[in-house]
Amino acid sequence: MYKYACLNPIAQIGLDNFTTDYRQVEDANEADAILVRSAKMHDMKLGDNLLAIARAGAGVNNIPVDKCAKEGVVVFNTPGANANAVKELVFAGMLLASRDIVGGIKWCEDNANDENIAKAAEKAKKQFAGTELYGKKLGVIGLGAIGVRVANAATHLGMEVYGYDPFISVKAAWNLSRSVKHIGNVEDIYKGCDFITVHVPLLDATRKMINRDSIHMMKRGVVILNFARDLLVDEDAVLNGIHSGKIRHYVTDFANPTTAGQDGVILTPHLGASTEEAEDNCAVMAVDEIRDYIENGNIKNSVNYPNCDLGVCHTKSRIAVIHENKKGVISAYTTPLGDADINVADMSNKSRGDYAYALLDLDAPVTDEVVKRIEENPNVIKVRVIK
Questions:
Q1: Over the stretch 7-31, which tens digit does the pLDDT of each residue have?
Q2: pTM
Q3: Dihedral angle sign, alpha carbons of residues 137, 142, 144, 147
Q4: What element of type H or E holds 227?
Q5: Are the C-beta atoms of 51 and 297 separated by less than 8 Å?
Q6: Is the dihedral of CA 69, 286, 36, 17 positive or negative?
Q7: Exposed / middle / buried, residue 288 (Cβ in 10 Å: 0-12, 13-18, 19+)
Q8: CA dihedral 245, 250, 256, 257 (to 10 degrees)
Q9: 135 and 159 in contact (C-beta within 8 Å)?
Q10: Please, are residues 336 and 370 in contact by the beta-carbon 8 Å criterion?
């Protein structure tokens, strides 16, 4: 029997995918797996039995990823599960920035008791006039699951779309519309686009990538949209750009004291993934990832260990070995197996940064003695007998 804990409400459609071999517990210290959305985990003590953490969403800033890696806890996220929800909100943001829809709604509310509101509206509507998206240039920085969807959809609205991503995956490239112009220099997007939307992870290289220098290159009246991470943007520089008239609007999904209530800022309270469909998709993917790892040892969509997949085990036994990515470690588990006359029928060893992960399908059951010998190697972090 495996135990799992939910640190935040997780959609029941996902939890229903757990079999009777799994039981939910309240105490996370007892859990073999943890599901989380936004709960802060950096100050949490990881339980001795913890095997995996699944974030029902893309960002993992609330999880101590490095600490988990050192302790052999695999951290998953659910990339793409909320992509459509975020994409739709990006377009809502572009429309709100193009036309003063909010101002028009507010005018109607303020004049609700006017018997002649229809006539008055014909005069008032001029102050809420805006521009269309059709024919405008959109720059999409980051062509992952969300960026590709935004870029493709924008072409159907008649926008001229430019995409930038020096690390675009093969899958994303295949999914990208041929109408999207792939740009090799992000400065070309800064200089030429009417709308710029950012969809990259928060890394040292991307932190405050929208800053005073990049804003200086932009067209006057540009609209900047940020539905990825607040720290991708130097918001003080953006506010200065708004006050100078360089930036028409800054649309962001990350409420904070710097931007809240500021003229020219269209701010939403982190609604990007707040749809029933996105929450369901994230929950289903998170549970599937946990089950595949616990039951088969397969890793998919981990943020601290490499992907590794041997499918379902059809041999007598399967073991998983988490270890430091150092030379000579593979012999730490193949030698004890050979000494015990256990044949390795299939094996996959993958590395990612300082860590590596191995799955081994064996033609004979592995013994406790063999496992103990493998664990004695100082570079081995965790050994798990899966079958």
A1: 999 999 999 999 999 999 999 999 9
A2: 0.84
A3: negative
A4: none
A5: no
A6: negative
A7: middle
A8: 10
A9: yes
A10: yes
